[in-house]
Amino acid sequence: MSAVQPANTYQPKGMLIDGKWVGSASGAHFTVENPARRKPIVDVPRAAAADVDAAVDAAERAFASWKKVVPRERGKLLLKIAEAIQARSEELARTIALETGNALRTQARGEANMTADIFRYFGGLASELKGETVPLGEHVLSYTRREPIGVVGAIIPWNAPVMLGALKIAPALCAGNVMVMKTAEDAPMGVLMMADICQEFLPAGVLNVLTGYGPEAGAAIANHPKIRKLSFTGSTEVGKIIMRAAAERIVPVSLELGGKSPSIVYPDADEDWAVDGIINAMRFTRQSQSCTAGSRLFLHEDIFDSFLKKLEKKTTALKIGDPLDEASDIGTIINNKQYTKVCKYVQDGLDRSDAKLVFGGLPPKTGPLSEGYFTIPTVFADRSNDWRLAREEIFGPVLVAIRWSDEAEAIRMANDSHYGLAAYVWTHDIGKGLRAAHAIESGWVQVNQGGGQTPGMSYGGYKQSGLGREFSLEGMLDSFTQRKSVTVNLAV
Ligand code: NAI
Ligand code: MG
Fold this sequence. Notes:
The protein has helices spanning 49-66, 71-87, 89-100, 104-123, 161-174, 189-199, 214-222, 236-249, 272-281, 304-316, 336-351, 388-391, 407-415, 430-439, 473-480; strands at residues 15-17, 20-22, 29-34, 39-45, 133-134, 140-148, 151-155, 178-182, 207-210, 229-233, 253-256, 262-265, 296-300, 356-359, 378-382, 398-404, 419-420, 422-426, 444-447, 462-463, 466-467, 481-489. With 492 residues, the chain is an alpha/beta fold.
């Protein structure tokens, strides 16, 4: 493998099992590609069932003592990890940009900083693993304990791999669990770097990180008899496979799945701040490869054309280019499969007579952008919320604008989806905004902003967007602890 990596990016040393960097038991490996060049970067081990077994055994051994470490001491280790990640955040950001295609300036740096912040946040929560006492009478002491669950199997995607990995590692370990994590095929490097930093501070086996394919290593995790909890982020389709596997042995699951999130713009919000907010909510600078992308834009008919004109002006001013280039606002799609899928959706939009292309279209076939999986922000206008582009998660920069005149109809269309992850409402009328926020069936509604998640907020989906919450104290307690009641007879 010709491994000429850009300066200041992480060079993987293998997978992390029991505190050691190892290859796969079979010796097999696979290649990570740079999506901006369609060129190989590095080879990583291809884990299979035997590697999952080894990692689970190591984790189980480590659990015996990790669960007994005083919670605040575990918290202090997480705080040290946070500072160590912060100290190497530029290398982490460049590694993320290199393997995911997410632009360094607009995305990858933010992800690296957020990763440090996630460890910081959960490190400070260790003393909140509290139970309660139950008043059962003068001669009874009844109390509850928050106990860790055991070996957690974690499977993560590639779109914000390091942040999404940290969101499982930090709360699970804080609560006294141990973990076997599988990285996404396309983006293992940043997660391995994070694991490398964690391993400087953690006992061997507490965190194990495998690189491998979903139906192979992922399925072995989902079905492993010694794994006591499954935490998955990815497609709804695979989420169902994970949940079925969990049902076989009654283990709890947390699922963070897809979305087709609505943005509802009221007629009084035909202004630049709302346009900036829509660009942010649609995650155009992440090629819209985000589960929270506001990819259905419900515009009031009075402002439909004027709003789209402003949106075109601001969106087409964004610079698409090499993710590692400071000048780039927008990078690339992750891989050929996703790129082909996004292009197919754009072609479907172009072929549909009811839909009007507002701007964008298919990616260029020649020139520098054709060297990588670059796509261009694309907006279609249509009367209907019922066609494929308005119903399916595209996971690419294709936005569908739909007009509305009656508020109840807008909310009905917004809720007419099997997903329910995020939503956005735009209006100066706060009463209207909040009534809409309460009527929308989504786990997270933002009014007049289109930002990303912040530690402390419980984040997760309604309907087929998921199960369970992450990112918060309650998320840690609900997802990574189990409650035990102890009842003592004091009359003896
Ligand atoms: P995916 O859901 O197949 O992959 C996510 C993770 O699941 C990866 O680590 C993968 O190796 C693993 N996996 C795949 N099959 C598995 C199996 N049978 N058993 C256990 N683990 C398995 O997502 P993919 O194929 O990368 O993307 C397809 C679509 O999924 C995207 O177009 C997008 O719509 C959606 N997606 C949603 C994400 C989110 O954050 N909600 C993240 C990534 C993808
Ligand atoms: Mg898949």
